[in-house]
Amino acid sequence: MAEDIVAGVMRQWQQVMPALDTAPMAVIGRLNRCSALLQQAADAPLRREGLTRPEFDILGTLRRTGHELTPGRIARETFASGAAVTKRLRRLESDGLIARRPDDRDRRVSHLSLTAGGRALLDRLLPAQLAYEAALLDGLGVNSQEQLAGGLGELLVLLEGRLGSLLE
């Protein structure tokens, strides 16, 4: 198996500082590198539709929950700041993909839902996006993908427990 860039970095650090424990780089460094590469490659179907990943995540959140959501709830669901969500919502609304309804009791609150066009776009785009993502992982066998998903799930639960309260 060829050496990945993180293994090379770890080897270099071991040569410079032999007592340094670089084991965390094996996980964190590889996750960061994979994340950067995936962000470059994984959104091609979305870009062809003129969507960003965060906009797609908002549409997906509205579709999978199946009911209206407030901007604050969307921010929590998508791990985005309120300001970022507001900007994305404005664009999605101007593109006719989401609709905004003011709250009956508090006009400062709005409720968001997918329009028919937003739902049709997402229902058409999601299978294509998932097929594209499956193709990116095609070099890994099913067992490797399941093991990787399980390990990442464990890490996510651990990090959410440790860092979740810091991010709220």
Strand arrangement within the widest β-sheet reads 1-2
Helix fraction by DSSP (H/I, runs of at least 4): 55-70%
Radius of gyration: 20 Å
**SS-derived structural category:** mainly alpha
Total count of strands: 2
Mean pLDDT: 90
Shape: elongated
Explained architecture:
The chain has 168 residues and is mainly α. The relative contact order is 0.09. The chain has a two-stranded antiparallel sheet with strand order 1-2. The radius of gyration is 20 Å and the shape is elongated. The chain has helices at 5-16, 23-41, 44-48, 53-65, 71-78, 82-94, 116-136, 142-167; strands at residues 98-102, 110-114. Helix 4 (53-65) crosses helix 7 and helix 5 (71-78) crosses helix 6 (82-94). It is built from 8 helices and 2 strands.
Tags for this model:
mainly alpha, two-stranded antiparallel ribbon, 2 strands, about 170 residues
Compact description:
The protein is mainly alpha-helical. Helix content is 70%, strand content 6%. A two-stranded antiparallel ribbon has the order 1-2.
